[in-house]
């Protein structure tokens, strides 16, 4: 596991003055990675690190010799830590690198972004027991939480090709749906379009096929985390999901934030992994002393909605819900890696592990509209008088996340937003 070191020192300040502002998502203690280019300029994507309201071009300052983010992610933990130290030292107040590095800084609002790395494979997990129970009640009232849930990190293989970056839009999906009282299904646009508040954990170094990753070494294979929204068509899902699970209800679009906050940056925000005493404890391959002591992470998450009417009136987005991963996640990232590979499955740099919808125990911590409105039965009333049971065309949904702890500087995950448009 990555430990706290000099790069996390709360006294550190950067010569990029915007990084020192209170509440900044990207102080010098963060240093998340992403891919960018100057807006309107032809050329390939560059690898950058966010610092304050700027992006540092890593190749331009000689810290890397590639524009392939997946190559950087595949480096050993030791090499990654060394790179982080060099970036931190160069951006600190008083650094001799300031004159040269200033020329490699680009304002974030002048940049275009793409997904932070090349995503080869994508697995979506189901790590919130609160989400699983609430949704299970709506799909299976007599058997909401299946008996394997507390033993097995449940997951399914998703669609990598339709993952996009924050700030984009997607068309409302179409597909088959069937009303409870109907004899046959119908075809058309989804009427129950939903969001899912998730985190995306990225694989760094992979493993050989047939060689499982032990839980004690799992974090060495994780690069970092992003915000992730796995858009869902609940009416299509309800008709198609048995017996093999989601298909067209999920594969039409997913959205990532542009920045990967590294495992190193998360070190000050670790938390114990705890199960209720009455719940089964993980099997041996999913258990370790270190994972119990500090295998979880404390990340605060919130969901905001801005309708087309609000946008036209200049009104800010409104918060729908908020939670923290220590209240929402039933499995740790290390357990997801260990379980994913225990049968010999080979992971590769850039593979994405979705956390699944992260919902806390309270109603105000719901990670989806399906939970928040009880499948549309209790619509949300917005301050401008509009109501929402599910998402409508023109709605922009935004996820935000940050980490805060005593003795540490707050770091942010940026934001992950997407807008629904008519099919």
Strand content: 25-35%
**Structural class of the helix and strand makeup?**
alpha+beta
* CATH class category label of the largest domain: Alpha Beta
The dominant shape is: globular
Give a written overview of the molecule.
- By secondary structure, the chain is of the alpha+beta class.
- It folds into two domains: 6-114, SH3 type barrels (Roll); 122-421, Fumarylacetoacetase-like, C-terminal domain (Fumarylacetoacetate hydrolase, domain 2), CATH 3.90.850.
- It is built from ten helices and 26 strands.
- Strand 23 and strand 24 form a beta hairpin.
- The termini are far apart.
- The mean pLDDT is 96.
Keywords:
423 residues; alpha+beta; SH3 type barrels; Fumarylacetoacetate hydrolase, domain 2; 2 domains; eight-stranded mixed β-sheet; five-stranded antiparallel β-sheet; 10 helices; 26 strands; 17% helix; 27% strand
List the helices and strands and how they pair.
Blueprint: E1 33-38, E2 46-51, E3 54-57, H1 69-73, H2 77-91, H3 98-102, E4 105-107, E5 111-114, E6 122-125, H4 129-139, E7 155-157, E8 163-165, E9 168-171, E10 174-177, E11 186-189, E12 193-194, E13 197-203, E14 222-229, E15 232-233, H5 234-240, E16 254-256, E17 261-262, E18 270-271, H6 289-294, E19 296-297, E20 300-306, H7 308-312, E21 318-324, H8 325-328, H9 333-341, E22 352-354, H10 369-372, E23 380-381, E24 387-388, E25 396-403, E26 411-421
Parallel strand pairs: 6-22, 8-16, 9-26
Antiparallel strand pairs: 1-2, 1-5, 2-3, 3-4, 6-7, 10-11, 12-15, 13-14, 13-22, 14-16, 14-17, 18-19, 20-21, 20-25, 23-24, 25-26
